[in-house]
Amino acid sequence: MRIMGLDVGDRTIGVAISDSMLITAQGKETIFRQSLKQDIDRLVDLINEYEVTKIVAGMPYNMNGSIGPQGEKTKQFMDKLEKKLMYSDRIKGKIELFFWDERMTTLSATRLLIEADMRRDKRKEVVDKLAATMILQGFLDRHGKD
Questions:
Q1: Looking at residue 43, which CATH number applies to its domain?
Q2: How far, CA to CA in Å, does 91 sit from each of 1, 11, 29, 49, 79?
Q3: Number of domains in the chain
Q4: What are the strands of the beta sheet with 12-18, ordered from one edge?
Q5: What pTM, to 2 d.p., does this model score?
Q6: Which has the least CB within 10 A, 13, 79, 124, 129?
Q7: What is the residue range of 85's domain?
Q8: Which of 21, 32, 27 is CA-nearest to residue 135?
C-alpha cells in the first residue's frame, strides 16, 4: 500500500511515490504530456507497479485561497483520472483521490535546484518530480497512516 503524489501541469506531470511505511516520498518520474489517454495509461501502470491505494494531487490555489484557471485544469484532469480508475479493469480496488495545497511548491523546488547549482536544462527535467515529492511529503507528514 503506497500513496502517489502528482504535480499536474500543462506540459508535464511530476510523479512521486511513498515508501511502504508511508513515511517518505520519493520522486519517480516526470511524464511529458502527450494525450490524456497516454498520460492516464502511464499513471495506471505506475499505480499497479507500486500498489497505490491513494493519490494526492497538488492544487495550485491562488494566494487568496480561491481556485484559478490552473486549479480548474487540475480538477478536470483528476476527475478524468478518477473516472478511468473506477471503470478500468486494470485497477484492483478503489483508489482514493485527495488534493493538497501546493502554493509555491514549484517555486520552492526550483529554488532548491538552483541552490544545488543544477543547470537550467537539467532543472526542467526534474523540477516537477521534485514538486510532486514535496506535495506528497507534506501530505504524509500531515496524514501519514490515516
A1: 3.30.420.140
A2: 13, 26, 20, 11, 16
A3: 1
A4: 25-32, 12-18, 2-8, 52-59, 96-101
A5: 0.86
A6: 79
A7: 2-143
A8: 27
